[in-house]
Design brief:
258 residues, Murine Class I Major Histocompatibility Complex, H2-DB, Chain A, domain 1, 40% helix, alpha+beta
Length: 258
């Protein structure tokens, strides 16, 4: 006599399929980018973009240069007037085929243009140093080991940082007297603070989540001689159930179950 499988049996079978699928996905060769994007397990990592704005560049020289770093390792270079981001290391080569790589271009260009537009209001009134004045800005998003991602900015002139901005709480910190004028101009300008929050807590955060899918293993093996034991921590809200379906779907598709 045929017996229909009850709910418990079907649930047990589904659990077994899921377990096999997850093991298959994590053990299979090839780039981990094929498993999932924007859902990644990570240790504490930082993604940083350094902007240098030249108010009066020499003929043929770029007015804005961007350098991207992950955990202090340079992986990209970009001129704000260009159309392509240049990979500068194996880390960049690993992720340059991702859609995220191309989406950086417009955002980095927008940030450069925004900073350039702010120059007339923030250049020190009594600039007596020899040579042209350059503006530096550093955008950082940092993933803690507990999965929390924070964002921040630093600003300075000619390589000397003088002002910090915490994108989470909107707090400004002056590190040098030159930063006082910038703080006075920006702290009450909603458009400025909203822009800095948006790109650091939105765009930069998303890039970090995407890239770490590919970078986690590379950074773990290229670090100290005794690499840290990987912490299985989601760079995603810990109570979120939305991180699992894409990964499950990808794994089941790889197994040709669907």
């Amino acid at each position: 006599m045929d017996r229909k499988a009850g709910p418990g049996a079907r649930l047990g079978f589904a659990a077994q399929v899921l377990l096999v699928a997850l093991r298959f996905c994590t053990a299979r060769g090839g780039s981990p980018c094929a498993v999932s994007q924007r859902r990644t397990l990570c240790n504490a990592h930082s993604l940083c973009y350094n902007f240098t704005i030249y108010p009066h560049p020499s003929p043929g020289e770029p007015w804005c240069v961007v350098q991207g770093q992950v955990d202090g390792n340079v992986f990209l270079s970009y001129h704000c007037g260009g159309t392509k981001i240049q990979s500068t290391s194996p880390l960049g080569e690993e992720v340059k085929t991702m859609n995220t790589w191309e989406t950086q271009t417009e955002t980095l260009r927008d940030i450069g243009n925004f900073l350039k537009g702010q120059l007339p209001d923030i250049i020190p009134e009594k600039h007596t140093a020899r040579g042209p004045l350059t503006l530096q800005a550093r955008m950082t998003c940092h993933c803690e080991e507990d999965g929390h991602i924070s964002g921040s900015w630093q600003f300075g002139f000619n390589g000397e940082m003088c002002l910090r901005f915490d994108s989470e709480n909107g707090h400004w910190t002056i590190d040098h007297s030159r930063g006082r004028q910038i703080k006075e101009k920006w702290e009450n300008d909603r458009a400025v603070t909203d822009f800095f929050k948006k790109v650091s807590m939105g765009d930069c955060r998303a890039w970090l989540q995407d890239f770490m899918v590919c970078w986690e293993k590379m950074l773990k093996t290229s670090g100290d001689a005794a690499p840290r034991k990987p912490q299985q921590v989601l760079c995603w809200p810990q109570d979120s159930v939305f991180a699992w379906p894409p990964l499950i779907s990808c794994c089941l598709h790889s197994l040709h179950i669907f």
